[in-house]
Specification:
four-stranded mixed beta sheet, 4 strands, alpha+beta, 8 helices
Length: 209
């Protein structure tokens, strides 16, 4: 699930704009500015212009100098614009991610959040906590199988963890649900555990039904 769908409308819209427009624009402006800086009639002609004016050169020299000055100014402007646009896009993305992290932390501490809502909104949900090695192993197996799933942190003492313990009569993690059914932990529990059910194709069967 795309985390941008959980953001405030203004922030979500700004991040979408930054990804769709600002990042490509920045990466287009930066190399274009660099290319102009390397042109033979670019800023390198500025010293010639100064020399020509000091020496009273022919009328053609100032024209070349003006062309070099314009080209150099345009190159610098494009490069600076690219940096500014890229910086703004990255700041918007970081702000969106910070907002998502705050929202997740609030959700974990909210007694009103129901694990039933989380389970019902996702085909696969893995309730985990670091640094549990079995959680990491189950998550890695789901990723290796190419399955899309919702990973939810359920640290000890959190409202979610207490709900999980009450629902399953077990305090261990991971706890993985597929299509609303508890399939177990990493190797056992529930319908048999994530690894065995991936191996025999049961989880894939549940998703296709």
């Amino acid at each position: 699930q795309d985390f941008r769908s959980t953001l405030p409308p203004q922030l979500s819209a700004w991040q979408s704009f930054s990804w769709a427009v600002m990042n490509p624009l920045a990466f287009a402006l930066l190399p274009l500015g660099s290319l102009l800086l390397q042109q033979p009639h670019g800023p390198q002609l500025l010293p010639r212009q100064t020399h020509a004016v000091a020496a009273g050169a022919t009328a053609g020299a100032p024209h070349a100098g003006h062309a070099g000055s314009f080209c150099g100014t345009a190159a610098v402007a494009m490069a600076l614009a690219g940096v500014a646009v890229l910086g703004a896009a990255r700041r918007a993305d970081h702000a969106a991610r910070r907002s998502q992290r705050v929202r997740v932390r609030a959700m974990l501490d909210d007694d009103d959040v129901s694990i039933e809502d989380i389970i019902g909104a996702n085909d696969i949900v893995a309730f985990v906590m670091p640094p549990c090695p079995y959680c990491a192993k189950a998550v890695a197996a789901l990723k290796e199988a190419g399955l899309s799933f919702k990973e939810v942190q359920a640290p000890k003492g959190s409202a979610l963890r207490k709900q999980l313990e009450k629902k399953t009569s077990s305090s261990s993690v991971p706890k993985v649900y597929v299509k609303g059914k508890f399939v177990g932990g990493c190797n056992d529990g529930g319908l048999g555990g994530v690894l065995p059910l991936l191996k025999n194709g049961k989880i894939q069967e549940m998703l296709s039904s």
